[in-house]
Amino acid sequence: MKSRHVDLRMDQATYDQVERMAHTANLSVSEYIRQMLVKGRVIVKVEQVMDPADIKRALAELGHIGSNINQIARHYNGGGVRSTEMFNRTKNALCDLYDLKKEIQRLGGERFGDT
Q1: At what angle do helices 52-77 and 84-108 cross, to 10 degrees?
Q2: Owning domain of residue 82
Q3: Which of 12, 27, 81, 105 could form a Cys-Cys staple with 31, CB 3.0–4.6 A?
Q4: Is residue 91 domain-resident?
Q5: Are 72 and 92 a contacting pair, CB within 8 Å?
Q6: Are residue 56 and residue 24 in the same domain, yes or no?
Q7: Based on the structure, what is the number of domains in the chain?
Q8: Same domain, 68 and 100
Q9: CA atoms within 13 A on the CB side of 102
Q10: How many CA atoms lie within 13 A of 70 on its CB side?
Q11: Per-residue pLDDT tens digits for 53-109
Q12: C-alpha span between 89 and 110 (Å, rounded)
C-alpha cells in the first residue's frame, strides 16, 4: 500500500516527455517515475502481432524458396554443371529469401527483426 506522497515539479516540456515515455511503457506517469527512481530504468514489453493470413503467405513463400534451393542442391550434388542458368537460379533464390525477410520485418513493425 502506498502511504507516502511526494510532490515533484517540472516544466511542461519535461512533463510531456515523461508522459510520452510512460504511455509508451503502458504505465501511468506516477508508476513510470516510481520505476525510474527505484530501478533506474523501465522495461517496455512490446508485443508484435502479424495477421495470420500474412504468416500463412510468408510460410508458403518460404516453402517455395526452400524447394528451389533443394533443386539447386540436388543439381550440384549430382555433379551438375555450373551453368549461367544455375547461377541465376541460385542468385534468384537468395534474392527471394532476402525480399521475404524484408517483408516480414515490414509486417512485424520497426522493432521486429531489426538486427
Answers
A1: 160
A2: 52-108
A3: 27
A4: yes
A5: no
A6: no
A7: 2
A8: yes
A9: 6
A10: 6
A11: 887 888 888 888 888 888 888 888 888 888 888 888 888 888 988 888 888 777 766
A12: 31
